[in-house]
Design brief:
Elements: H1 2-29, E1 37-38, E2 43-48, E3 52-53, E4 62-67, E5 71-72, E6 78-79, E7 84-93, H2 95-98, E8 102-112, E9 115-118, E10 121-125, E11 132-135, E12 141-144, H3 149-169, H4 173-191, E13 199-200, E14 205-210, E15 214-215
Antiparallel strand pairs: 1-15, 2-4, 2-14, 3-13, 4-7, 5-6, 7-8, 8-9, 8-12, 10-14, 11-12
Length: 219
């Protein structure tokens, strides 16, 4: 009987202990944003002010983008659309180097009414351009999107038949085989985006995501 009567007291003690620990744990997991802070993970759209192409652009080249939607801090302070962001090309891989063009962009600072503020963000998406894809896990790598393997093989097979036709008509096996091979390789490269350079035209929309907090206003 004594053991049973102790259970309610032990349960109450356990509840009080959890109540004492829980607030501190919650505070660590959900830190409060500063009043002038735009939190990490915030996504926003910008418009490219320059044209960037993997067959012309070099690592280190600078560019600017313009925000096309406002940024809001925790206390409601708003940085209107139209703010300029400066950046530079971090790395370029042209199509003739590896077969598939790739581009990495770095964003340096954003112009605010109180001056330039450091910015740490990466490209998260290129809305509207279905031929491109962004790999967030590879530091915002932008590359040409490859089609499905089956579609590429079907295109290559169809092109091989067309390429072989002149040789078949002339009863020339060598010309037929060579024509089929060239046509198949060309079609396969086109279907899989191999050999195609990547171009981001001026006014292209980019979706960026903050990797670190942005602080607006005077510190």
């Amino acid at each position: 009987m004594r053991r049973i009567s102790m259970l309610p007291a032990m349960a109450a003690l356990l509840v009080l202990s959890c109540a004492a620990v829980w607030p501190a744990f919650s505070k660590e997991q959900s830190p409060t944003a500063a009043p002038n802070e735009v939190s990490p993970g915030t996504r926003f759209l910008v418009r490219l002010d320059d044209t960037l192409a993997t067959n012309q652009t070099k690592a280190g080249d600078t560019f600017t983008v313009t925000t096309i939607e406002s940024l809001r801090t925790a206390d409601g302070t708003r940085l209107p659309a139209g703010a300029k962001i400066r950046g530079h090309v971090d790395k370029v891989v042209s199509a003739h180097q590896t077969g598939r063009a790739r581009l990495w962009l770095t964003f340096d600072d954003i112009h605010t009414p109180d001056g330039s503020a450091p910015l740490v963000a990466m490209v998260d998406d290129v809305p509207g351009l279905h031929s491109l894809c962004v790999d967030f896990n590879r530091e915002g790598e932008i590359e040409m999107k490859a089609d499905k393997r089956n579609e590429a093989l079907e295109a290559a097979a169809a092109a091989a038949l067309v390429g072989a036709a002149p040789g078949v008509k002339k009863h020339d096996k060598h010309d037929a085989a060579l024509g089929a091979a060239i046509a198949a390789v060309t079609a396969h490269m086109a279907a899989t985006s191999l050999g195609q350079e990547l171009t981001l035209e001026k006014s292209t929309k980019l979706e960026l995501i903050f990797e670190r907090s942005l602080f607006l206003g005077k510190m």
